[in-house]
Design a protein that fits this description.
Elements (H helix, E strand, L loop, with lengths): L2 H19 L7 H17 L1 H7 L6 H12 L5 H12 L5 H22 L3 H17 L1 H7 L6 H12 L5 H12 L6 H16 L2 E7 L5 H15 L3 E7 L7 E5 L2 E4 L2 H13 L1
Helix pairs in contact: 1-5, 1-6, 2-5, 2-6, 3-6, 4-5, 6-11, 7-10, 7-11, 9-10, 10-11
Length: 273
């Protein structure tokens, strides 16, 4: 991707993390993934739509409006919101938007796996399936045969992986097989495995607050924790009125407790002493 497209994708990924990735167990991530994968299929079939959604002569508002007219009622609010933001952003080319939609869909699928505690398995399964294709040229030829119908390819993937892989792995392999975007199949799977590894290297901070944080507060807290730990931090928010006020942050075994309830307990202990 060129600079402007890379920046737009980075912004979309950051917004996704704030809106969906920070929710407990990444609630809604699967819906975003499936919705955006469906949109990617539409963009594949409709080059005129890709051009309309990236037309620099149109305003961001008009492109958002086009998304609303075409996809409202077909997508849930979370994937629709992600698509609106993608359409409103500038892109170097129409193909970059299509690539961004699928990358965000893959990120959402991996986020859902992370929320389920399955990210390590998904990363390993993607890597091992890529290695299988290297060892089995006949299998690779079948999965990349343009004359083989998509439903046959999907059935083949499911017969190979079935109950032996996580559902997220099966879905990611299916999409990669059906839409490799000009990449070698092994390369596309390795890209997904690396994306999973990058997510796995992030810290997860569980945050207890008395009231929901707005977008600006969430961003400030994530940035502050990233400075403390020197790594990107994913927030998992838990709204608990019992904390009364302030924030409790748990990262691994470390608890940073700045809640009002903790301060009241401290005062009570001092009075009792």
């Amino acid at each position: 991707m060129e600079g402007v497209s890379r920046d737009s994708l980075k912004k979309a990924l950051a917004r996704f993390e704030e809106r969906v990735g920070s929710q407990p167990q990444a609630a809604g991530a699967s819906e975003v993934s499936e919705g955006l994968y469906a949109v990617a299929g539409v963009l594949d079939r409709e080059p005129s739509l890709r051009r309309a959604l990236t037309d620099p002569a149109s305003t961001p508002q008009s492109r958002r409006g086009l998304v609303e007219r075409l996809f409202a009622g077909q997508l849930g609010e979370a994937p629709l919101d992600a698509l609106r933001e993608l359409a409103a952003s500038p892109w170097h080319s129409a193909s970059d938007l299509r690539t961004a939609v699928e990358e965000l869909a893959a990120t959402a699928a991996l986020t859902a796996a992370e929320g389920d505690g399955a990210l390590d398995d998904v990363e390993d399964e993607l890597f091992r399936f890529a290695r299988l294709l290297e060892r089995e040229p006949e299998l690779r030829r079948a999965l990349t045969d343009q004359a083989l119908p998509d439903d046959r390819k999907t059935s083949l993937v499911r017969s190979l992986l079935g109950d032996r892989a996580r559902p997220a792995t099966v879905r990611l392999v299916e999409v990669t097989v059906l839409r490799p975007r000009g990449r070698a199949l092994e390369t596309a799977l390795e890209d997904l495995s690396r994306l999973a590894a990058q997510r796995r290297q992030r810290l997860v901070a569980r945050v207890r607050v008395a009231r929901p944080l707005d977008e600006a507060q969430t961003t400030r807290l994530a940035n502050a924790l990233a400075q403390v730990y020197g790594r990107q931090v994913q927030l998992q928010l838990d709204v608990d009125p019992a904390v009364l006020g302030g924030v409790e942050v748990t990262v691994g075994d470390e608890v940073l407790d700045g809640t009002v309830s903790r301060r009241l307990r401290d005062v009570g202990r001092r009075l009792a002493g």
